[in-house]
Queue: 4 jobs
Job 1
Amino acid sequence: MELNTTVTIDEDKSIARVALAGALNTDTAPGFDQELQRVITRGLNLTVLDMKDLDYISSAGLRVIFKAAKQTKAAGHRLAAANRKPHIDKVFEILKALPDMAVFANDQELDDYLESMQNKVRGD
């Protein structure tokens, strides 16, 4: 599955909206990271990731988002996620609940777990 992104900039309000459609995974994360970096370097006060049409997220996608969150915070700006589907929201809930130690042997094990949780919430 591919990932399509649409970026909308409101200079007056200093807001960027990045709409994601498809899958944010190992294959699509590098391109999304480049796109998101171009947005972040604009120095806008708020960058919103609109996840209304995001169907799947893997650990690679999460790394891109957490990297961006760290960058925006360091620059005194904000990154927000909006319109998360229940199965995507579940992934973020799981990660909030995990302790600061690694509980997965590798990225594939984490991705398999995240995929099974997303499938469960979707009823697949």
Note: The chain has a mean pLDDT of 88.
Job 2
Amino acid sequence: MAVSLGQGPDDETDEMSEINVTPFIDVMLVLLIVFMIAAPLSTVDVPVNLPGSTAPAQDRPDEPLWLSLGADRVLSLGNMPVPEGGLAAALDRMTGGDRTATVFLRADRDIPYGELMQVLDGLRAAGYLKVALVGLEGAAGAPAGAAP
């Protein structure tokens, strides 16, 4: 019974200099699948025909609080419709009572100005004073001859 422990001239002890990238590829594929599933879930699905704006784009938080007023005059917080007169309760439920949270207001371009003002009055009455109006980036939909 012979055991060779030495490194003689006949032994091949070449070091392997290749990196095994298979685990790295596996992790990347799993992350790709996770992001492909999570990305559509983080958007708002209430269809709103937004007017255009020439104002520069502002940074938005990671999880914005979307309040949408669609062309059908239905008010939605996120994807959930808000019952008539239940705006304050719905906002308190979504923010945990944090009235310093910024509400991103989206309104269809065909909504009359008076109805938009009623929503803004409802926000003010509920104590939510930080309101950001959302529009499309660029001059598309901006009135002709509008100043930049």
Note: The helical segments are 22-41, 87-95, 113-126.
Job 3
Amino acid sequence: MSKRKTTHIVPNPEGGWDVKQGGGLRSSGHFETKREAETRGREISQNQGSELVIHGKDGKIQRTDSHGHDPCPPKDTK
């Protein structure tokens, strides 16, 4: 089983927000606001079919959004 690709929105210790790939050391982009970072991270995540993981200022995961194969899709409520 292969590891799922992830794209993370994380706070930069020197200020602002970074977009990073899971397991990557370098940032895919640096932004002044979290909203800008989320917008770019979502574009990257959709293009790569990866999971978008959004962190808070404390580094803890706030929420996720799947743009690839979701192993636990929501149930159809119809």
Note: The chain has a mean pLDDT of 88.
Job 4
Amino acid sequence: MNKIVLASKSEVRKKILLENGIFCNVQPSKIDEDVIKQSLLKEGASPEIISKNLAELKANKVSNKIPEELVLGADSVIDLNGEIISKPKSREEALDILKQMNGKSHFLISSVCISQKGTMIWNHTDKAELVMKDFSENELKKYLTKISDKNLYAYNVYQIEGEGKELFSEIRGDKNTIMGLPITKIKAYLEEYK
């Protein structure tokens, strides 16, 4: 069985790793994502670059503390017409986000980085396209009543493995990418690393 340190407190990411035979110790990076995101946006960074940089920063920060271990950092962002949609901080914000995405196509970008000795040794970014159905505001409000606060604030405004499936008319891309961890590429790298 492969073993890795996960620089994230995401239960979904941990579950994906375990389901794929990768044992992980969890050690969240505790970086201030919003500050970094805002700084990168000011520099004109694309959503892909922001996702990749955040994954790398998380992995490197934890890797500095435990240099001999392989550390996996991950980050996901929503790209709506080139604009980043951040996790909601309130239910009102979540409704606004759903209204922005309503009836439109957007991309979910997931980046992963493996670091050792405080330096990135491998990374991968994957993208999935999701087409949201057209809903009335009342339908969106009703959807939000089904989502717990914990899930709403942790996983953006939809949970593709749960209630979120009903939001979309089309999903193009890997389910694990949408859930925040393109596991096929991670497994392939870890097999080579042995």
Note: Helices lie at 11-19, 33-42, 47-65, 91-101, 137-145, 149-154, 175-178, 183-193.
